[in-house]
Structure formats: C-alpha cells, structure tokens
Design goal:
Blueprint lengths: L1 H9 L4 E3 H7 L6 H11 L2 E5 L2 E4 L10 H8 L3 E3 L1 H7 L10 E5 L4 E5 L2 E7 L2 H4 L3 E4 L6 E4 L1 H11 L10 H9 L4 H5 L3 H11 L2 H17 L1
Parallel strand pairs: 5-7
Antiparallel strand pairs: 1-3, 2-3, 4-5, 6-7, 8-9
Helix pairs in contact: 5-7, 10-11
Length: 216
C-alpha cells in the first residue's frame, strides 16, 4: 500500500499513463510486476493499454469520462450526439461518448463506458473546438455549433435534396430543441461551414440563417 500511496501523492490527476507510472516506479524492482499487482488488487484500473485510473479507494475526485475521451485516443474532441446532449440541443441522455478524431475510426469498450471516434480531415477539424471543464479536468469539446455541423456531416442516413428537408431531420429525427437552435451563434456556424466545404453542411448553414433571420 505504501508504494501506491507514494504514486498517488506524486500524481495530481486521477488518470495516468504508462510513462508516468514507470517514472514513479523507477526506484523499485520489477516495476511491471508491480503494475500487474496494482491491477489485480484494484489499486489501478486499466482504461486501455497504457492508460490507467486510480482505484476507487485512492481517488480524490470522480473520474471524468470527458477527460478520458481525449486521452483514450487522439487527437480528438467530444462531439456528435454526446456533445449535443451536453449542450442541451437534444433531449436524450447519451451514454456513449462520441468523438471526432484526426486519426482513424475507432471504438473502445472500457470500465468507464463506450467511447467512439469518427475521423475528420484536418482542414475540418479545428474550427469550433473549445476547452471545457476546470483545473485538472479540462477537455476538448465541440461548441454547440460545431457539434451540430459534425452531426449533419457525419450522419450517412441524411442526404438532403433541398433546405426544407432540414425541418424533419432537425426537429423530428434529432428532436433538436427549437429555442436552443435559435440561440446558436449563426455567424460561427457560417464560419465553420466554410471550413467544411461540404454541400449538406453549407445547406444547413443557409437553412438556419434564413429561418432565424426571418423570425427575428
């Protein structure tokens, strides 16, 4: 217990990687065997290969799944349905943490839930990403505008032929909250849409501009 307490005292966050763990164990014999023992007795929990969380008895705060999402696979940021739910754009509570990545399509089932990653090209990746959380629990996430555009772009089921198709998609299919949609920064939506160079994302930006410009 003394060794794991020493590691706990030297690591501020609840999450640590293999390099951090080995650095903490550099003065001890057979560090890999010690890691195996920590996993066996629950002192550490493996999230994925090379990424660990302290066991419940050693945690100082709750483990943030949002922070884990950035660390499990990257570069990545939280977006799509999970971000839409957090931002209050859709009414459903989403349990799978959905992300966009500059890497390959991946999906991880972990002790802390399921994390999925959808690839996005670099020129579409950065616009609209924001920092969320506080202190050691900060993470990258799509702004509400970015999350919505990512969802429309990534959804293979939705292939709009005209702008009117967005009415049924947004309000019947996704069940987007009308007041939250009206409150979005439509200038930001247009800026993000330009980076996408995507027909249906551009159509969405124009649909929103016309709809809410007419109503205000």
């Amino acid at each position: 217990m003394t060794i794991i307490m020493d590691i706990r005292d030297s690591v501020r966050a609840e999450v640590l990687d293999y390099q951090q763990l080995m650095a903490c164990l550099q003065d001890y014999a057979k560090p890999r065997d010690r890691i195996s023992a920590f996993l066996a007795d629950g002192s550490l929990v493996r999230v994925r290969k090379g990424l660990y969380v302290f066991g419940e008895r050693y945690r100082r705060t709750l483990v943030s799944r949002e922070v884990l999402a950035n660390l499990i696979y990257g570069p990545s940021y939280i977006s799509l349905d999970y971000a839409l739910s957090i931002h209050g754009l859709i009414p459903e509570r989403v349990t799978e943490v959905t992300c966009m990545t500059a890497g390959e399509k991946r999906r991880f089932t972990t002790p802390f839930g399921v994390f999925s990653y959808r690839p996005l090209s670099l020129h579409r990746y950065a616009p609209g990403i924001v920092w969320a959380g506080e202190g050691e629990a900060r993470y990258l996430m799509a702004s509400p505008e970015k999350a919505l555009l990512d969802k429309v772009w990534a959804d293979p089921r939705f292939r709009p032929m005209k702008q009117q198709n967005f009415d049924s998609y947004l309000f019947a299919d996704l069940r987007v909250e009308e007041d939250r949609l009206a409150a979005l920064d439509h200038g930001r939506i247009e800026a993000i849409a330009q980076a996408y160079s995507s027909r249906k994302v551009t159509m969405l930006a124009r649909f929103l501009t016309k709809r809410y410009r007419r109503e205000t």
